[in-house]
């Protein structure tokens, strides 16, 4: 944003003009949230975020609202555009001690949080933290300028105190902190408004972090052509666990087929053939025994996408099986036990991944992540996923309510459509199956993983409250139908 701001200013738009537009938008949203008689407290910090607050105060006063401008710091310390906006405000303001703030906020109908935005560079402490606390305890709805104060816009983290907003108004583009937790929850509903920064600045800035929406991958996904053949859509293999743990792989295989793989084979240990056979219809079944069995299976060059891990078991045998898969030319998804089985020697896995041409997607949840990348866990979520992708050479899909998909080339997508109902046994197996199904259709791996996370979230919304993992594959149908309709 700093770069976007500077480029816009360098091309002739004054900084105060940007601030004027930003504050105007904030005032408009505040007016929507508050009756025309409503009293609005505008709590302003020492930087440009506070500057936006001063502009909003002027507009709201002109619109007839009762406005209280409350300052964290002495306005003599304001600089640049914020100082100009303060000078142009023409309204009384007061420096408030934290102990007095409660009194100042009582009886107001809306609080505008203009304490800190993009310039936050450390956790809120002392007076700033006390302000955030008092605002949160006031029970008054909060509209945040740019970000809820205390949220780091680049990471979504809030290491100290943070304001809880119901809405935020941000400028030009949403920031990672609007999508990553806890920032997403603290910022509330986010409106992103145009303040006159031209789109063209993005060519030079070249952002590498994206919100996971269909525009990110829709062009990489093809729907079956009129004369299409099932083999055009690939043949995926999902590896089943032993007799007592076959369900995870079957869930994955069903989702893989539903994601559009032309054919899906479940590779089953001989001992589990009966239980698998009694539960499968469109998914095919093949008995595969040991490493030799896997090698024989993979001799069929029509197979092009593989998934191993769900319910497979944690053991050296599993890591050896993974190694055989990695020697093939297929795209591969490594999930669950296939990840944990490498906890003692992750580097060997990464070396093998980096040595192959076809892509690998790793789909760890936090617990699996720490086993493979213990030294990365202290980083923020974007940095964790990016660091893991760079180190492993794989696309890394780091699961959670704010799943991040990262590529070794530096791109990262943040998924935000997943409902909490997806936190249910087997839901991750379904996700791994969807990725495998999209890889079978030869989607590039980053796009396949991103689309899969989005489909999984959208299917969760479609299935709704009370869903279980079995509901997800059927719920993908209307979601896919809508994607086909909307090119
Ligand atoms: N970019 C754009 O296009 C546009 C941007 N605009 C707006 O500008 C905002 C960014 O403004 P900004 O850079 O001045 O930073 P801001 O968030 O006000 O905070 C910096 C101040 O806070 C302080 N400080 C920091 N952390 C602290 C802490 N934990 N605890 C205590 N103090 C702390 C730090 O001072 P320090 O104490 O470090 O000297 C500094 O004084 C952006 O969010 C948007 O609202 C719009 O006007 C439209 C155009
Ligand atoms: N609170 C949440 N909100 C949205 N999605 C979630 C939440 N918690 C987990 N998920 C998603 O649910 C899935 C769970 O996967 P995983 O942990 O592997 O479970 P399992 O092994 O039981 O399938 C992941 O896709 C994850 O991103
Ligand atoms: K703010």
UniProtKB/TrEMBL annotation:
Q: Which residues bind AMP?
A: 399-403, 428
Family membership, please give it: Belongs to the NnrE/AIBP family. In the C-terminal section; belongs to the NnrD/CARKD family.
Annotated ranges, domain YjeF N-terminal = 1-203
For this UniProt entry, which segments traverse the membrane?
none
Quote the NCBIfam families the UniProt record gives. Answer: yjeF_cterm (TIGR00196), yjeF_nterm (TIGR00197)
Q: Which organism is it from?
A: Roseibium polysiphoniae
Annotated cofactor note: Binds 1 potassium ion per subunit.
Question: What high-level taxonomic lineage is stated for the organism?
Answer: Bacteria, Pseudomonadati, Pseudomonadota, Alphaproteobacteria, Hyphomicrobiales
Its function? Answer: Catalyzes the epimerization of the S- and R-forms of NAD(P)HX, a damaged form of NAD(P)H that is a result of enzymatic or heat-dependent hydration. This is a prerequisite for the S-specific NAD(P)H-hydrate dehydratase to allow the repair of both epimers of NAD(P)HX. Catalyzes the dehydration of the S-form of NAD(P)HX at the expense of ADP, which is converted to AMP. Together with NAD(P)HX epimerase, which catalyzes the epimerization of the S- and R-forms, the enzyme allows the repair of both epimers of NAD(P)HX, a damaged form of NAD(P)H that is a result of enzymatic or heat-dependent hydration.
Instruction: Give yes or no: UniProt keyword DNA damage.
Output: no
Q: Which InterPro entries match?
A: Carbohydrate_kinase_pred_CS, CARKD, Nnr, Ribokinase-like, YjeF_N_dom, YjeF_N_dom_sf
The UniProt record gives the binding positions of (6S)-NADPHX as 48-52, 117-123, 146, 248, 311, 365, 429
Keyword annotations of the record: ATP-binding, Isomerase, Lyase, Metal-binding, Multifunctional enzyme, NAD, NADP, Nucleotide-binding, Potassium
Binding, K(+):
49, 113, 149
Q: What is this protein called?
A: Bifunctional NAD(P)H-hydrate repair enzyme
Keyword check for Metal-binding? yes
Which cofactors must be present for this protein to function?
K(+); Mg(2+)
Domain YjeF C-terminal, by residue range, is 213-483
Catalytic activity annotated for this protein? (6S)-NADHX + ADP = AMP + phosphate + NADH + H(+); (6S)-NADPHX + ADP = AMP + phosphate + NADPH + H(+); (6R)-NADHX = (6S)-NADHX; (6R)-NADPHX = (6S)-NADPHX
Q: What quaternary arrangement does the UniProt entry report?
A: Homotetramer.
Domain of life, per UniProt, equals Bacteria
Q: What is its EC number?
A: 4.2.1.136, 5.1.99.6
Which Gene3D superfamilies does the entry mention? 3.40.1190.20, YjeF N-terminal domain
């Amino acid at each position: 944003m700093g770069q976007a701001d500077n480029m816009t200013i360098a091309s002739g738009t004054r900084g105060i003009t940007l601030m004027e537009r930003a504050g105007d938008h904030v005032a408009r949203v505040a007016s929507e949230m508050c009756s025309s008689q409503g009293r609005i407290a505008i709590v302003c910090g020492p930087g440009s975020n506070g500057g936006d607050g001063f502009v909003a105060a002027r507009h709201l006063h002109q619109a007839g609202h009762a406005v209280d401008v409350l300052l964290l710091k002495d306005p003599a310390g304001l600089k640049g555009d914020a100082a100009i906006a303060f000078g142009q405000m023409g309204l009384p303001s007061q420096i408030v001690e934290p102990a007095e703030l409660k009194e100042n906020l009582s009886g107001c109908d809306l609080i505008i949080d203009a304490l800190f935005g993009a310039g936050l560079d450390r956790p809120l402490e002392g007076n700033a933290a006390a302000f955030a606390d008092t605002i949160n305890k006031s029970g008054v709805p909060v509209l945040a300028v740019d970000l809820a104060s205390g949220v780091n816009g680049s990471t979504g983290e809030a290491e100290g105190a943070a304001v809880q907003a119901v809405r935020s108004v941000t400028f030009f583009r949403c920031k990672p902190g609007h999508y990553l937790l806890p920032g997403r929850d603290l910022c509330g509903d986010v409106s992103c408004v145009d303040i006159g920064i031209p789109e063209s600045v993005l060519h030079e800035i070249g952002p590498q972090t994206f919100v996971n929406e269909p525009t990110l991958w829709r062009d990489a996904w093809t729907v079956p052509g009129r004369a299409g053949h099932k083999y055009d859509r690939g043949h995926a293999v999902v590896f089943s666990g032993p007799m007592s743990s076959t369900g995870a792989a079957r869930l994955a295989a069903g989702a893989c087929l539903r994601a559009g793989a032309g054919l899906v084979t479940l590779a089953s240990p001989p001992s589990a053939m009966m239980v698998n056979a009694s539960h499968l219809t469109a998914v095919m079944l093949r008995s595969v025994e040991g490493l030799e069995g896997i090698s024989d299976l993979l001799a069929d060059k029509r197979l092009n996408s593989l998934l191993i891990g769900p319910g497979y078991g944690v053991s050296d045998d599993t890591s050896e099986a993974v190694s055989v898969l990695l020697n093939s030319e297929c795209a591969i998804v490594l999930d669950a036990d296939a990840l944990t089985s490498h906890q003692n020697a992750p580097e060997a896995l990464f070396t093998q991944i980096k040595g192959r041409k076809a892509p690998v997607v790793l789909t760890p949840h936090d617990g699996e992540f720490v086993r493979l990348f213990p030294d990365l866990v202290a980083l923020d979520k974007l940095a964790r996923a990016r660091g893991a992708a760079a180190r492993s050479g794989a696309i890394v899909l780091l699961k959670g309510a704010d799943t991040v998909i990262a590529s070794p080339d530096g791109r990262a997508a943040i998924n935000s459509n997943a409902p909490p109902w997806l936190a249910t046994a087997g839901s991750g197996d379904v996700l791994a199956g969807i990725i495998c199904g999209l890889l079978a259709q030869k989607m590039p791996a980053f796009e396949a993983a991103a689309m899969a996370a989005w489909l999984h979230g959208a299917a969760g919304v479609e299935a709704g409250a009370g869903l279980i993992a079995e509901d997800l594959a059927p719920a993908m149908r209307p979601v896919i139908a809508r994607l086909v309709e909307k090119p």
